[in-house]
Amino acid sequence: MAEFTMDLNDEQKEVRDWLHGFAADVIRPAAAEWDEREETPWPVIQEAAKLGIYSLDFYAQQFFDPSGLGIPMAMEELFWGDAGIALSIVGTGLAAVGVLANGTEEQIGTWIPQMYGDVNDVKVAAFCSSEPDAGSDVAAMRTRAVYDEAKDEWVLNGTKTWATNGGIANVHVVVASVDPELGSKGHASFIVPPSTPGLSQGQKFKKHGIRASHTAEVVLEDVRVPGSCLLGGKDKLDERIARAREKAAKGGERVKNAAMATFEASRPAVGAMAVGTARAAYEEALEYAKTREQFGRPIIDNQGVAFQLADMRTQIDAARLLVWRASWMATTGKKFENAEGSMSKLFASETAKKVTAQAIQILGGNGYTREYPVERMHRDAAIYTIFEGTSEIQRLVIARTLSGMPIR
Ligand SMILES: Cc1cc2nc3c(=O)[nH]c(=O)nc-3n(C[C@H](O)[C@H](O)[C@H](O)COP(=O)(O)OP(=O)(O)OC[C@H]3O[C@@H](n4cnc5c(N)ncnc54)[C@H](O)[C@@H]3O)c2cc1C
To answer: In terms of Cα–Cα distance, which of 242, 155, 237 is closest to 196?
Structure first.
């Protein structure tokens, strides 16, 4: 029988320390510069590639850690370094997971290497699902994919928004509707290969935080991709659509909103990113509180400051435990009966927002300036309650799961 333990094994500790070294020595020192430049930090990505951190192999190794803690530990350390740069490093992984989850072996072998490029010519990939009128409500997606049987090609038309690495990616994974009547059940994912005509970058967004990560619209105008670019293949899609039509005709299962239900297993990874940012801000605040003197003593001598730090640390540890539980559940095949994945993302992202704001308060005027990193961390933390499902959507998922009621 498996023993319960909270101890990390030697291998996990080694990986964690190695990543922490990279985050401390390479990511953190570059953070302020790339935040100001609001550009993809290609040299840092290349550095990560040289060490093997920017590669599918690295993610696969962490993903297959039997405890489930490989990915959350990696995310926490990289995002501890800096959220914008870390997202530039792991953003490709989000698109790669889309291919791993739905693609055939051939598609995985063909496209994932092109997503990363090689050490001397690093590339990135983008996952494009959100649209101007389909954010939380993924089922409202308008991008269409129409099959041209004569040429065995799919034709994509629509506008995607908020795509991390959108327009600068070598490979785009695009979610489109093949049958709008079926809502999210009629969606399919497509690879858009490098330099495909008709795909262009729309507006690049100037953001509040994670400014080193490129976020842009992706416009698809009569984008033609070979039949082999439909992830999973046509037979599988046809079967799935036929089943969904049958159910819809019977008036049976309600067509569910994918954003609300299907990300339970991937959400803890975002929670882990939030834990990384929160921990970074907490550590800055703790050090500052121990060294900054007012009224002839360190400010941490005041309970008003010390208790804030106690609460910050407690919440960060609680967030990490929720993230680890959900990651362990995902890896060991436990059923998310209480929306534990959403719980972990909700609590960790709200914690990051709160803790980074408290860190600014503890640093006083300095905390409010760009001379100290907590100002940037606070701006960065605001993303966690928005992407991969907003906090409100997490609460909806949790409440519906717990109650079994169609809460709106
Ligand atoms: C920096 C950044 C990077 C991103 N990267 C990607 C990416 O790589 N790929 C991608 O596809 N998408 C990406 N996104 C999109 C992201 O997932 C969406 O922004 C998110 O899902 C929310 O959608 P929305 O912005 O349209 O907000 P909306 O859905 O319009 O929500 C607005 C507000 O209304 C609330 N709300 C909506 N519906 C309900 C409801 N039923 N009950 C209660 N409250 C509700 C929301 O919680 C929110 O507070 C990214 C976004 C950002 C900002």
So the answer is: 155
